[in-house]
Design goal:
The protein has six helices and six strands. With 164 residues, it is an alpha/beta fold. The strands form two sheets. Strands 3-2-1-4 form a four-stranded mixed sheet, sandwiched between helices. α4 crosses α5. The longest helix is centred in the middle third of the chain and has 14 residues. The mean pLDDT is 94.
Length: 164
């Protein structure tokens, strides 16, 4: 897994590439960072190595464009590394429109998991491709900002950026 650090306006991310796809865009200060790294290394049977890869350059460019308001979605190819349920939840994040939010319970219902709000929240909390799969767009049922791997301030900054 080829990795490089990316400094965003709201915190540092670790970008990771495996076989030409982005498998990590993870907040380095997150309490789940180590478990995300360990899961990714274990499931890919790979280790981390600092370096350059075209997909890392592409992801960094798209992140720069996102933060300057030039793009609203990402085209960087992803490799989702997790359980089938986690991947199902992470893929659902792609369908939350730019500038909008939805709740954990809405995602659970969309996935046919009426009583699965906590499981959905846990999967979203383990999203290894933050911003690109927009978990920051998921809020509490009451519309309040809830936990975010990059911190509530980062979540608010991202939501404000998208509303601008």
């Amino acid at each position: 897994i080829i990795v490089r650090h990316y400094k965003s306006p709201c915190g540092e991310l670790l970008l990771g590439a495996y076989e030409g796809k982005l498998c990590l865009c993870d907040w380095v200060t997150s309490s789940r960072h180590e478990s995300n790294l360990n899961r990714t290394k274990k499931l890919l049977k790979a280790q981390l190595s600092e370096g350059l890869a075209p997909v890392l350059k592409e992801a960094a460019k798209e992140l720069d464009e996102y933060f300057t308001g030039t793009i609203k979605s990402f085209k960087t190819p992803l490799l989702l590394v997790g359980t089938e349920f986690q991947k199902e939840v992470w893929n659902s994040l792609k369908h939350i429109p730019f500038g909008n939010t939805c709740s954990y319970s809405e995602i659970a219902l969309e996935l046919g998991k009426k009583n699965g709000t906590r499981a959905v929240a846990q999967a979203i909390g383990s999203n290894p491709t933050a911003i690109i799969l927009p978990c920051h767009r998921v809020v509490g049922k009451n519309g309040k900002l809830t936990g975010y791997a990059g911190g509530i301030a980062a979540k608010q900054l991202l939501l404000n950026l998208e509303k601008a």
